[in-house]
Amino acid sequence: MNQKDNFLKGFVKENPLFVQVLGTCPSLAVTTKVENAIGMGIAVFFVLVLSNLVISLLMSRPAWRDMIKPVRIPVFIVVIATLVTVVEMIMHAYLTSLYVALGVFIPLIVVNCIILGRAEAFAQSNKPLDSVVDGMGMALGYMVALLVISFFREFIGAGTVTIWGNLQIDLSFLFRVIGITPIDMFLKPVGAFLTFGFILAVLAASANRKIQKQKQSALTKEAAK
Amino acid sequence: MKKGLVSGLVLLALGLICGLVLASVNAITAPVIAENEYRAKLAILGEFYDVDDFNIELLELSGAIDSVFLLKNKTTNVLEKAVYSVRSYGYQSDIVMLIAINADMTVDKYKVVSQGETAGIGDVIVGYDFQMQGENIANLDAFAGPSATFSANAVRACFQLVGARAAIDFAGVTPQIVLTINSLVYNLDPATFLTKPFVATITYGETNVQTQVYLALNFAFVEMVNPLDPTPEQTFLTELQLKAQQVSTVSNRTYFSAYDAGTHTLSITTRGYNSANPIVLVVVLNAAEDAVVSITPTSAESYIDSHDYAGTYGATPGIENHLIARYQASQSLDTVAGATVTSSAMIRALQLLQSFLEGGE
């Protein structure tokens, strides 16, 4: 696998949220605003890239690898927890409003399965550079997934799209055109599950169609023979 | 056994390294976080003052007053103002106020910062003029709120709490002057009551000088009753004004506003609920000026729930006319309990009229 494929696989093919269905709890909780999705995405980006790098570095030396192997899960968790705490402290100091908005979900990145999942599935058995690229791809793929969910939820639920702070696009006129008000339910947990479910259904349908087509073309090739 | 030891050492080493990393990041971010939190606290002060004009000291307390901002002069570092964040429970919520006090214990500014009282009737307190600006914080008689509601009582309680606390904060800053007000009454002389509505008998100074002075509507000194008496020094006069504001025997919310000796017509202004547009009573007296011929009220009082008043007393100004009728029937208002701002204002006005009839020319 070249670096490009390694980077791009996180977006669609192995998207952590939509395909691997990892880390859904914080993802559904924070996606009430596009702004939160961006903030959470950036936080996860830093933690994932750095944890992949550190873990890959630790595991790339055979002598260290043998020592760490029996206790690798606690080692990974300590590394991840440290990185998350560093990110949390920096956010608290320099991005206070985002820190308040993301609230308890920053510390919860520690137990976000995506981070530990990538450490276990990729970083521990790959080179540092590959691991960093993998981390970037996965984190950006995760952020894209958050953006998609939060866009639908904020738009349908509040009629707005908040990019950052006061930078807000008001689309509520679209609702007035139809003659309804924004559906507040989409800002609540039930709206998160509905949106997530619809997106998964659409992705599954398109995947099924692809498989169907492949089967079809295989059959026609077979028949042509 | 050996393997277990190695694993333990690995975890220990990792723990130490991570601990060091966290400690160093914390050393950088902790002061920034503390600074940010302090700035957020100061931001509320921006409602009243420019924060850069003062040296600010923040005291965090527990209880109804949760924080005190002491604003000190930048060059002399003398305490000039104190701002209090205070809360009191009203009808259904905590009413949070910001009250600023000057070093002479007068109220500089105040604001209801947050509340959750009944929409419509309760949230009138936000932005309402409680007539406390410039008044001594201890002078709760000046407080103009509908005294019978929970919300207004909570606001009043806020002022009371701040008054008690301010006395502690400003102790030693406010100069202590020996001055006693022996009596403070309305000036009932029709020739002079328009310009100097109050007369105070005072004792002041280290030698206990006793004298009488005329005071203006804001209780400021106007002149000596006996022009031959020496005028007290300015510090005594400032103290006199402050003390006069605290004395509850007269109210500067009710006063004679016009007098015509020819037609024996007297106007009394009294501030009720609609403070900006006070009630004015035009009183026509008999030639001897010892009995009332007629009283005509002009009022812009409003009633939040006019239905109740309409049912009992007729249309606005129902309260005013009702009390005038009671007064004219009995020449006395001793039995009337004024629980609303309007009725309190009317009772004060009619009492003033009665004392004029009894003591005036």
Question: Can you walk me through this structure?
Answer:
Chain A is mainly alpha-helical and 225 residues long. Chain A has helices at 3-8, 24-30, 34-60, 62-68, 72-94, 96-102, 113-121, 128-158, 172-178, 189-224; strands at 160-164, 167-170. A two-stranded antiparallel ribbon of chain A has the order 1-2. In chain A, a hairpin with a 2-residue loop joins strand 1 and strand 2 (167-170). The longest helix of chain A is centred in the C-terminal third of the chain and has 36 residues, at 189-224. In chain A, 37% of the residues are buried. The model of chain A has no long low-confidence stretch (mean pLDDT 89). By secondary structure, chain B is an alpha+beta fold. Chain B has 3 domains: 43-171, no CATH class; 179-244, no CATH class; 254-357, Sufe protein. Chain: A, CATH 3.90.1010. Chain B is built from 6 helices and 13 strands. In chain B, helix 4 (306-313) packs parallel to helix 5 and helix 5 (318-330) packs parallel to helix 6 (341-359). Residues 304-315 of chain B have low confidence and may be disordered. The chains are: A mainly alpha (225), B alpha+beta (361). At the A-B interface, helix 5 of A face helix 1 of B.
Task: Kindly summarize this structure in a few lines.
With 225 residues, chain A is mostly helical.
Which consecutive residue ranges of chain A, at least 5 long each, have pLDDT under 50? none
Radius of gyration of chain A: 20 Å
Q: Order of strands across the biggest sheet of chain B?
A: 1-2-3-4-5
Number of helices of chain A: 10
Proportion in helices of chain B: 25-40%
Mean pLDDT of chain B: 80
Can you write the helix and strand succession of chain B as a string? HEEEEEHEEEEHEEEEHHH
In spatial order, strands of the major sheet of chain A run: 1-2
Helical content band of chain A: over 70%
Largest sheet of chain A: 2 strands, antiparallel
Largest sheet of chain B: 5 strands, antiparallel
Quote the beta fraction of chain A. under 5%
Number of beta strands of chain A: 2
The first-to-last residue Cα distance of chain B is: 112 Å
- Give start-end ranges of low-pLDDT stretches of chain B: 304-315
**Class per helix and strand makeup of chain A:** mainly alpha
Biggest interface: chains and residue counts? A-B, 18 and 18 residues
- The count of DSSP E runs of length 2 or more, i.e. the number of strands of chain B, is 13
**Shape type of chain A:** flat
